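1st attempt posting a full record on here, be nice pls
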Amino acid sequence: MDKPTPSIKKWLAFGWSSFMKTKTISIVFSSFFCIIAGLLYWLLLRIDADLVIFPFIAGFFIVAPILIIGFQQVASLLEKDKTPMFKDLIALNGQQNKGIWFLIFILSLCYFIWITDALVIYGLYFGIEPLPLDQAFITDPALRESLLWFLLYSGLIGWVTAVIGFLLGVFSIPLIIHQQLNFVDAVSISVKTVFKHKKLMFKWALTLVMITSLTLVIALPLLIIVFPVLGYASYAVYADLLINKDNSQR
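the predicted structure (as tokens):
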């Protein structure tokens, strides 16, 4: 039997249909992160630390795999025609919780390193005083040049850190949750699968970055919808590239 062709559109469609089936618990869960992001934005803007918002937005992609654990569990229940509950979004199921917790530690450490480096680079170019993002960055050549270098260097560090997080978490989390693999085996398969489907996974990562970035920058309230949709879609990625592959070889 031919294996269905993996498709980003199909993954997103699965994410949307799963969200529609679980709107109440999904919105309640994602609202928590939306409120945290909103408070962070408000605090940084209040102290005129506009530029610091961008490192925190970039850091979201590092810890995002951690935040989809609950959506992975709910999506699996939906495929089994079971009715998920809110506790399924917040409780860790299975016997390999140590692997999940260790992965959470690794990704959190990557996030801490990224934020620390970004703030150090910010300090090198702008000092320790908060600096609002206003027209001075356009009219002042020195500020404009500093902004470009800050975005370049912090962007490179953020890109490397986010790639590491993506490689580690994109498949290892569902493998630990659904197949009860240990941390080492799950990460090994995750990295191998990403490199095996390099072009497709690059497109998927780019899709995640574009959708999430636009949401965080210009439409933060939509995070309560976008976050669950992408979280459920991540299960479809795992199912397409690992579960369906195994079934097609039987």
